[in-house]
Amino acid sequence: MNEIKPPKKPLIYYYGIAFVLLILFNSLIMPFAEKHQIEEVSYNTFIQKTEDKDIGSVKIEDNEITFTDKDKSHVYRTGEMNDPDLVKRLAASGADFKNIPARQASPIENFFLNWILPILILWGIGSYVSGKMMNRMGGNAMTFGKANAKVYVKSKDGGITFADVAGEDEAKESLSEIVNYLHDPKKYQEIGASMPKGILLVGPPGTGKTMLAKAVAGESHVPFFAMSGSEFVEMFVGLGASKVRDLFKQAKEKAPCIVFIDEIDAIGEKRSNQIGGNDEREQTLNQLLTEMDGFESNNGVVILAATNRPEALDPALTRPGRFDRRVPVELPDLKGREAILKVHAKKVKMDEDIDFNKIARMSSGASGAELANIINEGALRAVRENRQTVTQSDLEESIEVVIAGYQKKNAILTDKEKWTVAYHEIGHALVAAKQTNSAPVQKITIIPRTSGALGYTMQVEEGNHYLYTKEELENKIATCTGGRAAEEVVFGSISTGAANDIEQATKMARAMVTRYGMSDDFDMVALESVNNRYLGGDTSLICSAQTQTQIDKLVVTIVKKEHEKAKKILTDNREKLDELAKFLYERETITGEEFMNILEK
Ligand code: ADP
């Protein structure tokens, strides 16, 4: 896709400026320059020159006399004197002389210089200053209320197509209907079917929503108008609405085409009836609703919008007839991740024997954008180390960089701290391994990272996991507490290193009670609702204060039970714990294979 830039200022604008400059040059600079070639002399010199007959032509003006010498090589000027013999003397000298009456500027010239020119200058300064101010406010002095959408048309090399978007097969399938429609709207019109007017792409950030929208345009060879929801939000009430009007006007002119509004929640958020609500945003939303009602569903304008907060959208926007189709764009699964890695790997020089499946398994939970970043970090690492191609270890290291940050080169842990971190990380892994009897981790390192993590455990994911049983969740909680449990078992003291584990264990235990109905006390009663599924998933309680107290107690009981279990596992396997921690302390890294070898020895 090639972006089409909006037209620049009209030519007349530049002609106007050039004209004003020319006038200024003529009326101010030229006379000044001319005067500087003329030599000022006294009246005596003038008389002397006439008497010597060393004089060529003479111009007598209002109050000055300009003359040349005989061979006209020099020009002189002197003031006019009340000299009655002047004419006689000049005639005797043989000069060629004339009297030039003072030039009167024409009324038009006077009008131009006294009125038009100052106005033009002031207007120029004014528009320059206000242009600067508008730019600072994010707009442009000349384009009040214009949409300024980025317009893309299909480029010769084809632009983005569905082939560039890896995985996301369900989303592509949904969208390919739109592509078919844009190719041949008649087929649909004949049977009386109308296309959805708006399609909402929902999913977590970086999963390829923008890419999919571009791919729809690329596949259907139609223009693509892209704008972000926040670009509509203006300081003055009504401006956003006029931008919406302008966008739809442009789109209708270019139909069939695709209008893409990214982050639509910026304007589409639920309207509130609070006093002092956001008038500008609500007007913009109203205008969008009106525009979507206003065009026929068969006129060839398809609106795609993307958001990570579908639940925050105004119901009027998501009702049938507006954004009536919702296409989920979820985080990629194992197969999807592998495909995305391969798509991005095509752009860099890779070793032949890269195991993409392994990389995909190591990066569970990563979004498409993060996977693209992993490949790029790998390439950067290869360049840093002066290699021509990217290797498997580049990619493995860059997963850690993307997830945990760079290695902190100068962080110095004391010996005691290093032992603590080693035991802590092995504690997690050992508890996990003893519960499932399989390799729980891909790799553990205790090299401090810039994210602040002192150790880092990379989990493996053998396949996709959609359901967890109660026992599995309990085991996970036990694994989380394993780090702290190891510190207790080995050192008899505890450190601050477990903050993140505590948070995770509590979250899981809480969800078991409030959302998954896994406690005897509350059975299958929902006590919490999830607000923001795609952005971290924060929750709010929907129960009485007494129930909250009871929930808290249950959560504590669950975590305590699992903590005790973890401590027991570690005490029972104390020898292995010591051996593994020593290995990790000495080498700073242990792979899943090495871990299992020591454990099963
Ligand atoms: P979103 O709009 O969902 O936040 P984008 O579409 O802007 O995400 O994706 C950001 C980047 O992530 C893309 O430019 C692309 O490099 C990469 N990406 C995300 N998903 C995919 C995918 N399914 N296939 C290939 N690349 C992807």
From TrEMBL:
Binding locations of ATP: 203-210
One GO CC term on file: plasma membrane
UniProt enzyme class: hydrolase
Regions that span the bilayer: 12-33, 111-129
Subcellular location field: Cell membrane; Membrane
Domain AAA+ ATPase: 195-333
SUPFAM superfamilies linked to this entry: FtsH protease domain-like, P-loop containing nucleoside triphosphate hydrolases
PANTHER family membership: ATP-DEPENDENT ZINC METALLOPROTEASE YME1L1, METALLOPROTEASE M41 FTSH
Protein name, entry field: ATP-dependent zinc metalloprotease FtsH
Protein source organism: Megamonas hypermegale
